[in-house]
Write a structure and sequence with these properties.
With about 425 residues, the chain is of the alpha/beta class. Helix content is about 30%, strand content about 25%. The strands form 3 sheets. Strands 1, 2, 3, 4, 5, 16, 17 and 18 form an 8-stranded mixed β-sheet that branches. Strands 6-7-8-9-12-13-14-15 form an 8-stranded mixed β-sheet, with helices on both faces.
């Protein structure tokens, strides 16, 4: 009989943790007035008003009298409101200290792991995540690494007490790392000359084809005697309920990937795409979306213009390629909005650059029905800045909201700044 109280306690704990996994949206209402609203789809409302009710956007218009009643009205004169920024292709929450193996949880053993789920390794206690969030990035795509097929990526909020609570969209796509035709010497700050062709390139392509043939054949069976967990994960690719993220940079290898995968009728998103500007028409023709990596880089070849990576976003935009911007890694991700801002200096319009880290990202990741732009009935997930969020000189994030709830913008770095300012009387 003594076990009954323990059973009751256990049941209460289970109910409490289940409730935490499904956070309720804020049930209050508030109205921002006299703010510049950047919708995320290219539109800007000067002197606008943004209404929030029950965690969703209730009103977006020019500041004027309204019949709708709100619990609180906030005069945001001089401030800018943006959709929460979204960072695709990151290791955020999967890596804490790169030099410490025990804090790196993004790599699985084996070459073909389509069933590996990055979401269950997401560390909500990471000290890096708050530093990224304080720069306006409220959502991120966490991507597994390694092997030929790395596994499943998910989209998370950059706040939550556990991975279930932080999840926005789980297991949205499988990541295929395409083999390279050519290997380059040197490091990121000093590219070396091409030094060798990949002698195993054709063999690697055959390996991919054999695997996809087997997975497709498995998916077409109505019943199977023994479940294959790896092929079970691949089923949704062929049903187009998941996307295939193909990591490739070289123009020729990108074209090889699209042509080889065409018979399988899967939905392809190109990740990386350093040479995507060279084959923009081909990408449009094949309806391939692009997640463009690290545009603040040196060119890959000696005979390319030094500013080619900076100009690539404007070229893709002009050609009609659906693309968004990303910055690989973990702590580096905080600089994503400034990479978008740099693209403005090289031909991309300011609102198009914003779309490349908000609405277009949401569309590519399949979450645009909920986030990515400030439109009525979407989640009230947004940020408030004193100035232009794409300019590091004026981007001062003062407030952030997820589903209508205020988000803490503090982080360890800010705490240390205040601590030592006070200690040494530097104010």
């Amino acid at each position: 009989m003594k076990t009954i109280p323990y059973i009751i306690v256990a049941l209460c704990w289970l109910i409490a943790t289940t409730a935490l996994a499904q956070p309720e949206a804020a049930n209050t209402s508030f109205l921002y007035t006299n703010v510049t609203i950047h919708i995320g789809n290219g539109e800007v409302i000067e002197n606008g008003m943004l209404g929030i009710r029950n965690g969703k956007i209730d009103l977006v218009q020019v500041t004027a009298a309204t019949t709708k009643k709100y619990d609180q009205t906030i005069d945001g004169k001089g401030k800018h409101v943006y959709p929460g920024l979204i960072a695709p292709n990151t290791k955020l929450g999967l890596e804490e200290v790169a030099a410490v193996r025990s804090t790196r949880d993004f790599l699985e053993v084996g070459r073909f792991n389509p069933n590996v789920r990055s979401i269950i390794a997401y560390n909500t206690d990471s000290k890096i995540v708050p530093t990224v969030r304080s720069n306006g990035i409220l959502m991120t795509q966490i991507v597994p690494q390694g092997g030929r097929i790395s596994g499943l990526s998910s989209v998370t909020y950059t706040e939550g007490d556990n991975w279930e609570e932080a999840t926005l969209a789980a297991d949205g796509g499988i990541h295929l790392r395409w083999p390279t035709r050519v290997r380059y010497a040197g490091w990121w700050a000093q590219k070396g000359a091409t030094y060798s062709n990949n002698k195993n390139y054709d063999k690697a392509l055959r390996e991919i084809k054999v695997y996809f043939d087997a997975a497709q054949a498995y998916a077409q069976k109505e019943t199977v005697e023994t479940k294959n967990l790896k092929f079970e994960a691949m089923k949704e690719l062929f049903a187009k309920s998941k996307k295939l993220y193909v990591h490739a940079d070289d123009a020729k290898t990108i074209m090889d990937a699209i042509k080889l995968l065409a018979p399988y009728n899967v939905q392809i998103v190109l990740q990386g795409g350093a040479d995507s500007w060279k084959i923009a028409d081909f990408l449009v023709e094949n309806k391939v979306e692009v997640i463009l990596h690290n545009v603040h880089s040196l060119p890959r070849r000696d005979d390319e213009d030094i500013d080619q990576p900076f100009r690539t976003p404007a070229i893709l935009h002009a050609k009609g390629v659906k693309f968004c911007l990303s910055m690989e890694g973990s702590w580096q991700v905080r600089n994503l909005p400034f990479q978008a801002g740099q693209s403005v200096a090289y031909g991309l319009s300011k609102e198009a650059a914003l779309s490349a880290i908000t609405l277009h990202t949401a569309q590519i990741l399949g979450i645009a029905d909920r986030v990515g732009s400030l439109e009525v009935d979407k989640e009230a997930t947004f940020i408030v800045s004193e100035g232009d969020v794409l300019d590091m000189r004026t981007s001062i994030i003062t407030e952030a909201y997820m589903m209508g709830r205020a988000v803490d913008l503090g982080n360890k770095q800010k705490e240390l700044y205040k601590k030592y300012n006070k200690k040494y009387d530097l104010d």
